[in-house]
Automatic annotation (TrEMBL):
Domain Peptidase S9A N-terminal: 69-498
GO biological process, one term: proteolysis
Name the record gives this protein: Prolyl endopeptidase
Cellular component annotations (GO), alphabetically ordered: cytosol
One Pfam family it belongs to: Peptidase_S9
Record field: catalytic activity: Hydrolysis of Pro-|-Xaa >> Ala-|-Xaa in oligopeptides
Length: 796
């Protein structure tokens, strides 16, 4: 799994800015200078958050204090590191409680009453539906004798997987998730073919939950007909699917069955500990699957697995949290015996069994100091992509048969660009994808020497959104998109050319003209002097008079890069309201390497909020908008971002759209996979970390501004089946906002403080198209209502 993928498990022409982003940042080295946090623990004292000096502008929607539901508060509190922390809504953590269900119902009723006042919502929904109603194609790939790709006719709840005998052959349905549920909430979450392409293991999730059920299909190589196997694997989450080359079985990850046999509804909140690596033999009942590796002494460690190019070894990637570091353990499959039916026999190595033997492991890297991703191998010479001694990554090689690894450079770290990923193709060619000023740059190199061969001729400025190709073939496919282009897929063949690619399929929509829009890259200057890039997308000829409804999006965490990508919702905002959309590249993300990530993590997390505020201030200074027309949006870690920024600088924003946010930084690690985020946020159980987390935590820092002003309008969204960022965090924050800001007899708060809780929805992955349209329409029509944006696209 890629760096971005593993972190996520746990977000017209371009007019460049004056300076080169990368060269400036490399010269500066973006040292992680963080704000001096004004918090000192006084044992036995209750925590009192600091109040912002000035409140938010008044919006065009309002909720009177008397309209908010009366929510029970109790006297729950606890002492953490000598500080008394009040938690009067702890009871909202019980997701299955009737009281919580009543709270959700009352909040949804209130929110709906406000949304009903957003007069442009029906028209916006129709526009968004029209913009999303275009054919979508995934990047094709070849396995065995057939090509595969995903396709959505436009508004299907889930994309369908097709196969073809050739690129112009008749498509045959492989899997259609739309047939698996009446409401479209069963999604295909992952899949993997056996080496010869004759068998497929695929995982399904339901209602947006991270829990998966794995099934197996047989595939006829000639006609593409499928045969369903009886194999069904449960208790699967955050799983690899890695076939051994004999096609008789595959590795996958599971968790111990929960007590009582339940616990996979997607609404549970228990910590996800003690992941296991198991091996399933095709045709066996899951009860016979052998757990080959478990790490009970490290319950929060995760185990990834892939099989080497020659099939002789399995590469186990051991991680702890979301920091871009891992261990690499190599399992010698040739040292594993065979059963009578020819399948690998791991039973002598079964974890926890009496008399079990030790796995034949070579712990090539056995410390958490850098990340290593397998690229390819020739005999005992193995090649990896790593950030060891290279925050912008390099490609290295070592002899795994040596007593200790001796790493040699194949592709050195670039002086400015970030090496995002590397793929080995047939003919000994490497495809290397870089980020250059947060834009894609792809080149080919020689696998043996690392020598540069050619730049791949991309169609413009944007992002590589998909790639397929492997070491057995010279053919590859590459998908490309930008902020205003849905994208296209190109085919290349390094046997014919190291640089040329030809158009395979263009994704087109007739609902708008990309030529009507422009993209600029500008910079804000953060509190410590760091220049922070952002992409600004708007209609051409926009008048900069400070009135444009502006949507500023950010994430800033977990080494995730926000690169140019197509979004129908952003386009709908610009078309419907003449708006501006902005994507900020904040510290904490991966846009410029691990140094950029580190400068926004742990004790430096405040830098991320300062960066976002700096971007907002720059937008105001350049007269794109004013605080009264500025809306901020973020999801997950980005939900934390926008909530914290609104608390620290309420005067700067009109509305806050926080989706599935991490709103409680003192208890995030106690639920589901939250413990994996300690590497980005810190550990609240450690006093030093607690001291920087407490003044940043949105739940604990709601305070009426000193001028007796108000907060911006809030719409916090979540899903009742979100078992990654559990909904209790959002519920507790909205209850706190309503009580603190609108609970007195004569409060000044009139800007709405709302939540929207979706039924049978999770963290976002696999959400049906209709639910996406409904949620986005509610959020952006609400934001438009708050800023008083008139409808400018046709007639409402």
């Amino acid at each position: 799994m890629s760096r971005a993928g593993s972190a996520a498990v746990l977000a017209g022409g371009l007019v460049l800015g004056v300076a080169s982003v990368a060269s400036y940042l490399v010269k500066r080295a973006y040292a992680p200078v963080s704000r001096s946090i004004a918090f000192q623990a006084f044992p036995g004292k209750r925590y009192r958050p600091a109040a912002a000096a000035v409140g938010a502008p008044s919006g065009h929607l309002e909720v009177l204090p008397s309209q908010y539901p009366r929510v029970r508060r109790d006297d729950t509190e606890e002492t953490l590191h000598g500080v008394i922390i009040q938690d009067p809504y702890r009871w909202l953590e019980d997701a299955d409680s009737p009281d919580v269900a009543e709270f959700v119902e009352e909040q949804n009723v209130l929110t709906q009453s406000v949304l009903d006042q957003c007069t442009t919502r029906p028209a916006f929904s129709k526009l968004l539906e029209k913009l999303m109603d275009y054919e979508k194609f995934g990047t094709p790939f070849k396995k065995g004798q057939r090509y595969y790709y995903t396709h959505n006719t436009g508004l299907q709840a889930q994309s369908v997987v097709y196969s073809q005998s050739s690129l112009d052959g008749e498509p045959v349905v492989l899997i259609d998730p739309n047939t698996l549920s009446a409401d479209g909430t069963v999604a295909l979450s992952s899949w993997a073919f056996s080496e010869d392409g004759s068998t497929l293991a695929y995982a399904l999730s339901s209602g947006g939950s991270d829990w998966q059920t794995v099934h197996v299909l047989g595939v006829d190589p000639g006609m593409g007909a499928t045969t369903q196997h009886p194999d069904t694997l449960r208790h699967v989450k955050f799983s690899c699917l890695a076939w051994t080359h004999d096609g008789r079985g595959f590795f996958y990850n599971r968790f111990p069955p929960p007590p009582g046999g339940g616990g996979e509804a997607g609404t549970e909140t228990a910590r996800a500990d003690n992941q296991e690596l198991a091996y399933h033999v095709l045709g066996d009942d899951q009860a016979w699957d052998v757990t080959i590796l478990a790490l009970p002494e490290h319950p929060d460690w995760m185990i990834g697995c892939e099989v080497s190019d020659d099939g002789g070894r399995a590469i186990l990637s051991i991680s702890s949290g979301c920091e871009p570091v891992n261990r690499v353990w190599i399992l010698d499959l040739n040292a594993v015996g065979r059963r009578a039916d020819g399948a690998l026999d791991f039973s002598p190595f079964a974890h926890g069994a009496a008399g079990s033997r030790e796995l034949p492991l070579n712990k090539l890297v056995d410390e958490f100091k850098a990340s290593y991703e397998y690229v390819g191998s020739r005999g005992s010479e193995w090649t990896f992509l790593t950030n060891a001694g290279a925050p912008r990554y390099r490609v290295v090689r070592t002899d795994i048969s040596a007593p200790a690894p001796a790493w040699t450079n194949v592709v050195p770290q670039h002086e400015a660009d970030l090496l995002q990923w590397v793929r080995l193709l047939g003919g000994g060619k490497l495809v290397c994808s870089y980020l250059r000023n947060v834009q894609a740059h792809v080149e080919t190199r020689d696998f043996e020497t690392g020598r540069w061969l050619a730049d791949v001729q991309l169609p413009g400025i944007g992002s590589v959104t998909g790639f397929s190709g492997d070491h057995k073939a010279t053919e590859f496919f590459l998908s490309f998109a930008s902020f205003t282009e849905p994208g296209a897929t190109f085919r290349g063949d390094v046997a014919a050319s190291d640089s040329d690619i030809t158009l395979h399929r263009r994704i087109a929509t007739a609902s708008f003209s990309p030529d009507d829009f422009q993209t600029r890259q500008i910079f804000g200057t953060s509190k410590d002097g760091t220049r922070v890039p952002m992409f600004v997308v708007s209609r051409k000829g926009l008048t900069l008079d400070g009135t444009a409804p502006t949507l500023l999006y950010g994430y800033g965490g977990f080494n995730i890069s926000l690169t140019p990508s197509f979004s129908a919702s952003r386009l709908a905002w610009m078309l419907a309201y003449g708006g501006v959309t902005v994507v900020a590249n904040l510290r904490g993300g991966g846009e410029f390497g691990t140094g950029w990530r580190d400068a926004g993590s742990l004790s430096h997390k405040q830098n991320v909020f300062d960066d976002f505020v700096a971007c907002a201030e720059e937008l105001v200074a350049q007269r794109y908008c004013s605080p009264a027309s500025l809306v901020i949006q973020g999801g997950s870690n980005g939900g934390l971002l926008v909530a914290a920024c609104a608390e620290q600088r309420p005067d700067l924003f009109a509305a806050v759209l926080g989706q599935v946010g991490v709103m409680d930084l003192l208890r995030f690690h106690k639920f589901t996979i939250g413990h994996a985020w300690i590497t980005d946020y810190g550990n609240p159980d450690v006093a030093e970390d607690f001291n920087w987390l407490l003044p940043l935590s949105p739940l604990h820092n709601v305070a009426r501004p000193k001028d007796d002003g108000q907060y911006p309008a809030f719409l916090l969204t979540t899903g009742d089946h979100d078992d990654r960022v559990v909904p209790l965090r959002t519920l507790k924050l909205v209850a706190t906002l309503q009580h603190t800001l609108a609970g007195d007899l004569n409060p000044s708060q009139r800007n709405p403080l709302l939540t929207r809780v979706e039924v049978r929805a999770g963290h976002g992955a696999g959400k049906p198209t209709a639910k996406v349209i409904a949620e986005v329409s509610d959020m952006l029509a609400f934001a438009a209502g708050v800023v008083g944006a008139p409808w400018v696209h046709g007639s409402a």
